[in-house]
Design goal:
Bound molecules: adenosine-5'-triphosphate, magnesium ion
Strand order of the largest sheet: 10-23-24-25-21-22-11
Number of helices: 13
Distance between the termini: 44 Å
Radius of gyration: 31 Å
Number of strands: 25
Shape: elongated
Strand content: 15-25%
Largest sheet: 7 strands, mixed
C-alpha cells in the first residue's frame, strides 16, 4: 500500500538529516537488499496530538520516499494506562492523516520472545534479579557526577537468577518486590547504562494478554528488540531518547539480532500549545475541555473536529522538517498552512454572526430575487449558487455605526456601501428599542447597481455581507481562541492574582470558547455536511460540528480570516521576503 503525500514529492521538500542518513545507507547498501523499514510506535495511553503528526509524517513519509514500508506498532507495555479506545483512535488518526501502515504490530505480541531473550541474557551472566526496592535502586544509581554502587544482589549465581526470574514470571512475588536488571556498568558515565531495569512485577490485567503475564518489560528493553524483530532499518524517535541509544545498541549486540538503527530528531513544540498526552489527559479528566476531541485540543481528533485538514498538516510538517536541536514553532505558522489550504478548498457562503435587521425602504415588499454567486473564486470548478435577496436582510451589528469613528467606512447614516454581489445601498435612519439599542436600520437601494457596480462608475469604500431575513437559517456558532494565555504554557512565574502558578493548567485561557447563539446563515448552509469546509465571507473558516441536528445546526470556527503569520514572517525576515 502506498502513502498519500501528493503535495510533497521528494524533490520538492527541503532536505533534512534523516533523509540524508537514509539516502547514505541506501547508497552504501548498509542493509544489503533489505528494503527501508520504519515504524511509528505510539503508546496507547492517550489520543495522538500534533507532535505525533510530525513523527508520523517522518516515519511514513521517509519510508515512502525510499520505497520502504512502515509498521504501526503499539508500544503496549504499561497495562493500566492503556486502553482499546486509544488503540482505535490512533489507527483512525493515522489514516486520517493520509497514511496506511504495512503491518499492525503490538509490543505485547513479543512478550514470549522478550522473555526468552531475558533468559538468554541471564544465562550469559548479563542480567540478574535484584531485590532492592525502587527507592534503594534510585539511591544506588549515583548522580551525573558520582558513580553508582553495585547492588548486594548483583553477583547472584546464574542458577539463582534463573530460578528467581522464572518464579517472578509464575507470579510468586508481589509487585515491586524484585526486578530483573541488565548487568552492565554501575560506574558508566551514562546513567542509562547503570544496570537498567529490564522487567518489573505488575499483577495487572493487560488489554491484550489478559492475566497471562505478571512481569512486564521496560520501554528500553522492549523497544529496540521490537524494532529488530520487525527488521526496522531506521528507528526514528525524539531527542530525549539520545542518551538511551547506547542501551538500545547494547541489548541488540548482546543478543546478536538484526541491527536496527535509532536516529533522534527534534520534538515539535508549538507556542500556546501543550503537546503531552499526560497533560492532555488531565485536561480531559478534570473536564477543563469537553473530551479528547474538543476543538480547542491539539489532538488530531480535536483539530479535525475544528476543521483542520490532513493536507495542511502534512504541508506544515514538510515545511518544519527535522533537526537535531529542539526549538519552538509559532502556532501561527500552522494556522498559515491551514488558511492556505482552506482558501483553496473552502466553499464561500454568507453568514451573519451577530445580526442587525436592515430594511430596504424602496425595495418591493414580498419580492425575492436570486443572485448567482461563485462558490469559490479560487476554483471555478466549484461552480455557483443562487442566493436569495429580499427587502429585509440581516447584516453584522459591527457593520453599522450610527456615529462612525474616523476611518470607519462601513455603513452609517448617509453612507453608501455595497451589499456583496447584490446592490449599493445608503443608510437613512435607525429604529431603537426602549434601552436605546439600535434594532433596525432603514436604507434605500439603487436598482441600477444590480450585481454590485454602479453604471455611472461611482465607487464605495466598503462591501458588507448579508443574508435575506425571510430565507435565513439559524445556527449556533462556536468561536475558539487559544487554549493557553502564554506562548509557553509552562511559564509559571506568575499565576492567577499575581501568585506564582503551580500548574501549567493555571495558564488556561478562560475565554478559549465563545458560543454565539442566533447567527443567521444563507439557506444553502442547511445542506452542510460533516467534513465540508466553508469560508464565511469576511468572517472566517467554518465547518459543521457533529453536535448538529437538522433542527439545531452548530458550526465551529476553524480560524478567523486574518493571517497573523504573514505579518510575523514579514517582521522577522525584514525586507528580504518582500523583495
Ligand atoms: P507524550 O509526551 O505526548 O506522551 P510520547 O512521546 O510519550 O508523547 P508516544 O506514544 O511514546 O508518545 O510517541 C510515539 C512517537 O511519537 C514517538 O516516536 C515519539 O518520539 C513521537 N512524538 C511524541 N511527541 C512528539 C512531538 N511533540 N514531536 C515529534 N514527535 C513526537
Ligand atoms: Mg511515551
Amino acid at each position: 500500500m502506498t502513502n498519500a503525500n501528493p503535495e510533497s514529492p521528494a524533490a520538492a521538500t527541503p532536505s533534512n538529516f534523516l533523509r540524508d542518513q537514509i539516502a547514505e545507507d541506501v547508497r552504501t547498501r548498509k542493509y544489503g537488499d533489505a528494503q527501508i523499514q520504519t515504524r511509528f510506535p505510539p503508546e496507547p495511553n492517550g489520543y495522538l496530538h500534533i507532535g505525533h503528526a510530525k513523527a508520523i509524517c517522518i516515519d511514513f513519509g521517509l519510508a515512502d520516499e525510499f520505497g520502504g514500508k512502515t509498521n504501526l506498532r503499539f508500544d503496549d507495555t504499561n497495562p493500566g494506562k492503556e486502553e482499546q479506545e486509544y488503540v482505535d483512535s490512533i489507527q483512525a488518526d493515522v489514516r486520517w492523516l493520509g497514511f496506511e501502515w504495512d503491518r499492525l504490530c503490538y509490543a505485547s505480541d513479543y512478550f514470549p520472545q522478550l522473555y526468552e531473550w531475558a533468559i538468554q541474557l541471564i544465562k550469559a551472566g548479563k542480567a540478574y534479579v535484584d531485590d532492592l526496592s525502587a527507592d534503594e535502586i534510585r539511591q544506588h544509581r549515583g548522580t551525573l557526577t558520582e558513580p553508582g554502587q553495585d547492588s548486594p544482589y548483583r553477583n547472584r549465581t546464574i542458577e539463582e537468577n534463573l530460578d528467581l526470574f522464572t518464579r517472578m514470571k509464575q507470579g510468586e512475588f508481589s509487585d515491586g518486590s524484585r526486578v530483573l536488571r541488565a548487568k552492565i556498568d554501575m560506574a558508566s558515565p551514562n546513567i542509562n547504562m547503570r544496570d537498567p531495569v529490564m522487567y518489573r512485577i505488575l499483577h495487572a490485567t493487560h488489554q491484550r494478554t489478559g492475566d497471562e503475564w505478571c512481569i512486564y518489560p521496560m520501554y528500553d528493553y522492549a523497544h529496540g528488540q521490537s524494532d529488530s524483530l520487525e527488521r526496522v532499518t531506521h528507528s526514528m524517535c525524539t531527542l530525549e531518547f539520545t542518551d538511551h541509544q547506547p542501551l538500545y545498541r547494547w541489548f541488540i549486540e548482546q543478543l546478536g539480532i538484526f541491527p536496527s538503527q535509532q536516529i533522534e530528531f527534534d520534538r515539535l513544540n508549538l507556542t500556546y500549545t501543550l503537546l503531552s498526552k499526560r497533560k492532555l489527559l488531565q485536561l480531559v479528566n478534570e473536564k477543563r475541555v469537553n473530551g479528547w476531541d474538543d476543538p480547542r485540543m491539539p489532538t488530531l481528533s480535536g483539530i479535525r473536529r475544528r476543521g483542520f485538514t490532513p493536507e495542511a498538516l502534512r504541508a506544515f510538517c514538510a515545511s518544519i522538517g527535522a533537526s537535531r536541536t529542539n526549538g519552538t514553532t509559532d502556532i501561527e505558522m500552522l494556522e498559515h498552512f491551514q488558511r492556505d489550504d482552506l482558501n483553496r478548498r473552502a466553499r464561500r457562503a454568507m453568514a451573519v454572526l451577530r445580526p442587525l435587521k436592515l430594511v430596504i425602504d424602496n425595495y418591493p415588499e414580498g419580492q425575492t430575487e436570486f443572485f448567482e454567486v461563485a462558490n469559490n473564486p479560487e476554483d471555478p470548478s466549484a461552480g455557483t449558487r443562487q442566493v436569495p435577496f429580499s427587502r429585509e436582510l440581516y447584516i453584522e451589528q459591527d457593520d453599522f455605526r450610527e456615529v462612525p469613528p474616523p476611518k470607519y467606512y462601513r455603513l452609517s447614516p448617509g453612507k453608501e456601501v455595497r451589499l456583496r454581489a447584490a446592490y449599493l445601498i445608503t443608510a437613512q435612519s435607525v429604529v431603537k428599542d426602549a434601552a436605546g439599542n439600535i434594532v433596525e436600520v432603514y436604507c434605500t437601494y439603487d436598482p441600477a447597481t444590480r450585481g454590485g457596480d454602479a453604471p455611472d462608475g461611482r465607487k464605495v469604500k466598503s462591501t458588507i455581507h448579508w443574508v435575506s431575513a425571510a430565507h435565513a437559517i439559524g445556527a449556533e456558532i462556536r468561536l475558539y481562541d487559544k487554549l493557553f494565555t502564554k506562548a509557553d504554557p509552562y511559564d509559571l512565574e506568575e499565576g492567577p492574582e499575581g501568585q506564582p502558578g503551580r500548574d501549567v493548567l493555571d495558564n488556561l485561557n478562560p475565554n478559549s470558547i465563545e458560543i454565539v447563539i442566533g447567527a443567521k446563515l444563507e439557506p444553502s448552509l442547511a445542506k452542510a455536511q460533516l467534513g465540508e469546509h466553508f469560508q464565511y465571507e469576511r468572517v472566517g473558516y467554518f465547518c459543521l460540528d457533529p453536535d448538529s441536528t437538522p433542527a439545531h445546526l452548530v458550526f465551529n470556527r476553524t480560524l478567523p480570516l486574518k493571517d497573523s503569520w504573514a505579518r510575523i514572517e514579514k517582521t522577522t525576515s525584514g525586507g528580504a521576503a518582500a523583495r
